Amino acid sequence: MSACNLETQQLRMPKAGCSLTECEDAIGLNSRGRRFAVADGATEAFDSKTWAKLVTRSWVRVDPPALSVEDFVPLVRDLGARLQSRWKKKSLPWYAEEKARQGSFTAFVGVQFYLAETPKSWKAIAVGDSCLVQKRGQEIVKAFPISDVTLFGSNPILVPSLAPLQDRMAENFATSDGAFEVNDEFLLLTDAVAAWYLDSEKPESSKSLAMSLLASSRYPELENHFQDLRARGEMRNDDVTIVRILVREHA
Question: Burial level of 128, CB count in 10 A (0-12/13-18/19+)?
Fold first, then answer.
């Protein structure tokens, strides 16, 4: 394969009726390191927006990359301790203190690209129901860690901030890898948009329109499209986050 680079677009969109500051999804981007991640903070957990942001932004920066459970769990333990320490310094009402004691949770998926190898390849990790999709033309090459749309909404194990819960999380740590070609497209998706995108019963024309709007950075039109899908009951009303990564031939 000839030399290539990675082109990215991203969208974060809150639930209907909420502002972007209330969105509990997070994105981590390290274009120079060719490492990308999204996370979906659990709505019912305390301060999950901060936890999702901390995990994604830290994971894309750490070197060497935390692509095994042996590397990921220590990273998460350190981040969780940091978050708990931050909470303890705040003056919280009693009900918030109780929720804080139960910790925070997030789904997570991250991918590392290797452009200097032959063949050029990627490795991904995931905990929970945020997904990576690799496409070649109109065909899905890989959907990870969920490819069966019926498995969404089945109470996935998430990344917890509390150390005592992290061993259970490690049992559900998933990895995947593969090769890629020029013009392959990768999507990192939080669960609501992933469930819609991977549902074979949803119109392909609607999915193609969404990806075309994202590729051309027409974000207001894309948000309107998703709002219409929610209104028609075709997509669950939840935060939506997408990172699109296109493999381009280097000029």
Answer: buried
Cis peptide before 220 (omega within 30 of 0): no
| Planar angle of CA 94, 166, 93, nearest 5 degrees | 10
pTM to 2 decimal places: 0.94
Spell out where the chain has E strands. Answer: 4-13, 25-30, 35-41, 105-114, 121-127, 131-136, 139-144, 159-160, 174-179, 185-189, 240-249
Q: HSE (CB half, 13 Å, CA atoms) of 140?
A: 18
SS3 51: helix
Residue 144's pLDDT is 97
Query: How many CB atoms are located within 10 Å of the residue 115 CB?
Result: 16
Average the pLDDT over each of 53-57, 82-86, 148-152 and give the range with the smallest value.
Answer: 82-86
pLDDT at 178 over 50: yes
Domains of the chain as residue ranges with CATH? 4-249 (3.60.40.10)
Torsion of CA 144, 146, 148, 153, to 10 degrees: -160
